From TrEMBL:
Residues 757-921 form the Tip attachment protein J domain. InterPro entries: GH (IPR017853), GTA_TIM_dom (IPR025195), J_dom (IPR032876), Rcc01698_C (IPR056490). Gene3D superfamilies: Glycosidases (3.20.20.80). Residues 1021-1114 form the Rcc01698-like C-terminal domain. Signal peptide: none annotated. Residues 416-696 form the GTA TIM-barrel-like domain. Pfam families: GTA_TIM, Phage-tail_3, Rcc01698_C. It comes from Pseudorhodoplanes sinuspersici. The lineage of its organism: Bacteria, Pseudomonadati, Pseudomonadota, Alphaproteobacteria, Hyphomicrobiales. This is Uncharacterized protein.
Amino acid sequence: MAQLVLTLAGGVLGGGLAGGLGQSLGALFGAYVGGILDRELFGPQQDRRPVEGTRLTELNLSGSAYGQTMPVVWGRMRVPANIIWVRGIREVVHTETETVGGGGKGGGGGTQTITRTSYHYYADVALGICEAPVTSIYRIWLDKTPLDPEHVDEIRTYYGDETQSPDPLIQAVEGADRTPAFRGLAYVVLENLYLTPYGNRFPNFEIEVYRGSRADVADARHLVRNVCLIPASGEWAYEPNVVRSRVRNSNINSNAGRKAADFAVSIENLKREVPNVEWVSVVYAWFGTSMDVATCSIRPEAEYAIYPDRLPDTTPYLWSVMGVGRPVIGGGGGWPLVSSYTNPDGSLGLYYGGTINDGSVVRAIQHLRSLGYKVMLYPFLMMDIPPPDPSPFPWRGRIGGAATNVPGFFERPDGYLRFIRHCMSLAEDAAGVDGFVVGSEMVALNRIRDGSGNYPSVPFWQQIASEAKAALGPECVITYAADWSEYRYHDRGGANVDFPLDAVWADPNIDVVGIDAYFPLTDVPRAVYDKAAVAAGWASGELIDYFYATQSDRDLERRGLDPQRSPIDDPFWAIKDIRYWWENEHVPRVAGVPTGPATAWVPRGKPIWFTEYGFPTVNCATNQPNVFIDPKSIESFAPYYSNRAVDRVVQRAAIEATEEFWNEPANNPTSPVYGGPMVGRRFVWCWDARPYPFFPALTNVWSDGENFRLGHWIEGKIGNMQLAEIVRDLCLRAGLAESEFNVTALDDEVVGYVVTERKPVRDMIAVLQTAYFFDAVERDGVLVFVKRGAGEPIMLDPNDLGASENDSDRSRVKVERTQDTELPIAVDVVHIDEGRDYQSSTVTVRKQVGQSESLNTLSFPIVLTVEQAQAIGQRALREMWQGREAVDLRLPTRAVRFDPTDIVEIPIDGVWRRVRLTAVTYGKPGLVLLRGIATDGGIPEFYTAPTDSGVLPPSVPEPVAPVRVELLDMPIMVDSHDASAPSFYVAACPVGTGRFRGATLFQPTADALDYVVAAVAGLPSTMGETVTELAAGPAWRWDRVNMVEVQLDYGSLQSLADERVLAGGNAALVGDELVQFANAELIAEGRYRLSRLLRGQRGTEHEIAAHPAGSRFILLDPARQPRPNFSVSRIGIEIAWRYAPVPQGPSGDLSGEIVFINTGNGLRPFAPAHLKAVRDPPSGDVQLSWIRRTRVGGDSWLNEVPLGEETEEYDVLIVNGANVVRTIRVTSQGTLYTAAQQTADFGTLPASLAWRVAQISRAYGRGTTAEALSTL
């Protein structure tokens, strides 16, 4: 008897199979696994126990209990982490004290002291993730929020291999002899984790982990040896170090939630996820402007222009190419900008990233070589030809024109030679490269032929090759990367054929023949996953055996319309037959007849490198690998017969088939000339320098992210696990030997699968079986896993049906049917959503017609797209309804050729029906009993149009922004502030687009050995600088003449009505002058023109002077600018303060220093007003008088304003020339300057008097002086 293994009782299975396999299967599968349809519809009631995967709610709960089961992960998954070690929580207390109130006449009035104490908690913790080893550890979530790198001092990751060493922190705390290495466990250590944002407790931890295939698995990620690195443009795309904008001071090239550049993160991922890569081809682009060689300019382009006052705009590097920077607004110069478009919200978008900064290219090459990679520099042209051109963003291979204009294309000041020589200089600056491409895919250019029959572009490629060899050395591999359609010959029509590139291939400075090898490998109207069929396409099929003249010929498979070339009897014409071209001389043809001498090509003389090859992740990719889907480009196409569905399996299968084919010596002969294989290195297009999954998800950063799903990118794709690998691993865990099972048919992709609880292996396989529709059957002592519906149906002889041992009249076919009302009308597929940051999602598939009201739920701890979940639901519902009929057959013994899982065709009620066999049983001699369920056979393809509905980008912690801090030595802003405090204000704002959590000001301790918190600015201030001069103006009344422009680092400004300004609104510090403004006109991003000013407010009239451009501008707001405690004894002393964004300390990587002297301006009395001097003629005495001003309550309408000082005292200073000749201390708002005093000071009674008066503060001393020149 043979039956589906996964529906057998273990005892029967063990007894029914010979030897160890039967015993192993009994142990593996026990009483039950899988067989969902057979079980649900026809299985015995006592055997209908459910098979459940891990409950999705369990995937979100972490813990700290000993003995917890560590998850087992295949592929990519977000799993709960278990706390496996922790060091005690540390408490940091922060206390702030503020005194408010006071003032009043004579300095009286009540005060109130407010003390605020906050508590901050930190801990060290180790988090166990899953069974190891794993390939990569990515993001960490705390209470569903991505871990902010600023909330932890250090993150150390351990991948769980057998050589793993103990963590140094745990070892230091616990001791070397008590610290395990946790080998076999993947874990992370978070050192000094800040717990306050999580309620001062340990949050729920989740970690994203990736476990790829084992090193001994010959799959795509292990077969690939060479990759092309893109995106080729983006000003800082290849920069290994973090670059920040000085305008916004945001991190430009750090978007992966780490304190590292995107490039460095991506290359780290490449190293771990495609571990056998040896060569990286760095693609580097400039921009072409025209498809005509006569007018095409080749140039760098920048992403944005800059105001001159905002330079330098980036740190630590400034963008430049060939020593030229970006254009300056109003100043000209710089490289032009890339083409842009306007988004629906009015913002500006870029069609391309700008040319990569020169220094970044150099550092990228050096970084790659330091990691052990060989580097090939691949210069590339992108055509920046935007709409409304009817052919926007075309392929460079279409650049053409007249032969007479070809030299200009190369030699003009903005021609190709300038570009390629600059590329050589970059390679030289990097201390060399291992390979260099002189040009690529210039098909139309290379087919321009002059009147003498020459190809004018060819000598230029030879010249460039010679220059490159001289510049980069003899060891550097030089090549031209020919399009797959141009490497061979140029058919000028009428079977007149030349070999223009043979002169390039034969040139002594060209080391290899470069081909961008996007040959069609299949030509059928369906996706091909059979690697043998794809591999065969390299040596047969379209462009070797035949070609199609038109699309209709392709649709009808008409391959014989051209008697000369289809079928291709003469391999001369077979452009995909690389071997024939490589092994033979090349003789031009006239009207199809070989004419003249052979070209300079030496048969087998040089190796061929695939400078590019690859496949998009779209249905039917192998039919037309060269096309891509990009809505903005005229070149956007889907492959022949593609339904545009995402298909990562076809990409992986095609890469594996290609690598395996060319690794086989029988397909790749050795040259007797150079002793190496015909096809050498093969560079897969492409790996991106922008790290997955942040690219493609962050479309607000990278606008081409929408092309990723269907494009040629391999990151996040070819590394996904194969179903076969997972089932193989599970069989091995159950104790089966490799020879006892076969999983080769299971070629589905599994993005991620997790088991978080102890359960039998049978149940783990059952979950996969339900999701991926496969069965298992024993054949010749081997457990064979079979995709359901695979294989061709077998038609049974009707005469064999109904056989019996005694020829009695038996029913030919017995059919048992389940009632429709017992079948589900709908299926819910609960899964982990790949597009929603691994959140649980449910897809419902409903049958449109039926009387049933039942609903089936399939719950999978498997990562799926919405489209994949819908396809699973559709197929499950379809199989349930098709399989409602069970069929029993009796056949003669010649039917023993059948196995369970086979599909047979039989007549039922006069109609031929298909039945999938579930059991084959030997009855009495001469009889075989078959049991099966109805099916339509085959593997159905369900396609749902992709949608972005509900798709979430990966969670990325918003980075902590650097902060700008200003210390404001100024009068108190509002009367409620303590006028007796010797303090100042702290203003802070974020620098850049990161999150502002506050800024901390740190004061050095008395011994200068440490720092303590002085103040925390919890809210950001509106801050910037003036960009024009603010001239002097009138005090205390509207300045209607002057205006000033300011550029804000943060915040925005608005105009206010006069009455709101007079009530204190729109007060700002410009330099050290307090200015108010009524009008704020936005004139550019972050730039305002301020007018209708009130000058010298709050006692700062002495600061009214010309403020130069670059003066600080701070919008004053007492809620945003705290005052630290400060000792009056330290007034006038230079102190080195430190500041940092919350939660960093004084030595954090974003901290800074301010050397500041608090002069105590907050205590400084204002200058008196209305100075008056009147001489008494009889006596000659002069009565001096003035009106005092107050720092507190001066805007009230009371007859007498508060004094604001402890006592009322003034100094009156009499001035003679440049000297003060008398100082009079008085306690009222006037004094008598006697005639005798005047004579003593001047020798006579003066006709005019220069004098000054200042109010005295016991804490501060003499305040601001008012001065008058009075005529007596």
